[in-house]
Amino acid sequence: MNFNNKVLKSFLLDLGFVIVITVFALFIKTKLQGYLDLLKQYGPSLALIDPSVNALEAQQVLQEVSGLANKAVFFIILIPVILFLLYVIFHGFNFYLLKKKDNYLLKFGLISLPGYVFLILMINYLFLGSLSWIILILLFFIAFVSYLQPTKKGFILLLKKYYYVIPAFIGYLAILFFIGFFIVLFYLQTLINVYAYWLLVLALIFIFGLSWYRNFLVEKFG
């Protein structure tokens, strides 16, 4: 597989990931809004029911509300699991196409898990202090190096080239940041009926840049 084919396949996978995540985010918004609207409908019913007079009716309504709330909670718990699986499938397969190592997808998932779990805990418990961010970036850096060299020996050898790897890692994060920034900015503008398609063009340019840069990193460090 020549360089151009590698970059093209990587670009299609990156683009597919962005599209799937965007569609999934819209689905999450619609689903959660639906649960919220249904729960709001039970508000007047609960306010009108006197448990001392209509105990059976009150119990029935409470069971329905509890069941709906449980479905919403289960869906919320499922969201980070699905996001992680999508990340492993798209990004893991992207690196696999470039490296072609046995059991790479499994290793990719295990390598990515600590940083992802810590990120979820940070968001859930609002651990947003400086120490938390330092730990998160460190976990992401370890994962990044492991993506390029998943073996212990290769990992250690690559860490010794930290003066090259750290700038490469920062560059990778910067590209991901700008992709997300342009897409989010475009979405926010659509909420006020403004469609600045040049933001999507910039996002596509950075997505292609990510695909090329990943191929470059694997060729240089992998």
Structural commentary:
The mean pLDDT is 85. The protein folds into 3 domains: 100 residues; 44 residues, no CATH class; 62 residues. It contains 7 helices and no strands. It is an all-alpha fold and 222 residues long. Helix content is 87%, strand content 0%. The longest helix has 46 residues.
Structural class: mainly alpha
Proportion of helical residues: over 70%
Give the overall average pLDDT: 85
Q: Tell me the fraction of residues in β-strands, as a range.
A: under 5%
Number of domains: 3
The count of strands amounts to 0
Instruction: Name the helix and strand elements from N-terminus to C-terminus, one letter apiece.
Output: HHHHHHH
Count of DSSP-assigned helices = 7
Biggest sheet character: none
Q: Keyphrases for this structure?
A:
single chain, 222 residues, mainly alpha, 7 helices, 0% strand
